[in-house]
Amino acid sequence: MALCLARPGSHPHIDVSIAKRDNPLTSLLSVLSGALGVGGNNSELDSETPNPQGSGRPRANAALERTLTHYAGYAEATYELTGKPWSCQTCQKPEFQGTIVDVYWENAINGSTGYIAHNPKEKLIVISFRGSKELSDWRDSLNIDLVPWPASIPGSQVMAGVHEGYASLEPRIIPYVASLAERYPDYAILATGHSLGGARASLCALDLSIQHPQLVSRLRLYTYGIPKLGNSEFANAISRLGIPAYRAVNRGDLAPHLPIGLSDYVHFGTEAWIRDSGVTVCNGPTSGQCSDTLPPLSLNLVDHSSYPGMV
């Protein structure tokens, strides 16, 4: 019950504030976070001095911030697409026009939705997984037992719910991405997603690197608001890939601090903590410089659904 993973349901023509207020998953999140004694207000973060453009103060890691915001659009598209045509509100933005969806899936059994696409203008192959939206997604999210995976990495364990959802997709996704990468040998490969989607994207990135090590140099992993996914062996396996592997954390988002109180769970890669002043980059699971410095009562649910590039 520790996993509060959800993104308020949205639609290109529905006011986001209404969606956040009325979505039953958001109400469930509020109950769970209250039971854990976390979540509430943004007082700790709101005291920070904003850094609007033109203020004369340089934004921290501005180039990374632009990349995070841009790739967030590919994660956002999973909430908006309803089929293979690249047609959605985010899709219409100039920077995403010309993207071609090669595979779209929507699995009612495990609650997974996502797509594989390529963008000739960016020379980019995209694997994007949708985050928690339906009750079936919650079934996966709430299973926080650790299970051995992948078999080739001794001692590595990952969250059972995330693994179950990904394992059913792997036989279709990995071979197709490999064939697409062979067709476009000069394209980078992006694995991305928000919340539960970012969790599945993380497993996909590691899996792809194991089954097709020749693609590691082209691989990049950008996730948004993901929980801790596994133990230290799993985290180290992703770090050893030497790829850009960023875990974006928006202000006081509660989700990246979950599961709470389970010491076996640790984060992988580099945290990119998004605040008004820019992006703070921290390496390692607890650096004492990023979101792990926040007091528990400043963690909240609103920031989980308001990542730059996804609103």
TrEMBL record:
One of its GO terms (molecular function) is hydrolase activity. Keywords: Hydrolase. Residues 126-260 form the Fungal lipase-type domain. Pfam families: Lipase_3. Residues 40-59 are annotated as: Disordered. Transmembrane segments: none annotated. Gene3D superfamilies: alpha/beta hydrolase. One of its GO terms (biological process) is lipid metabolic process. This is Alpha/beta-hydrolase.
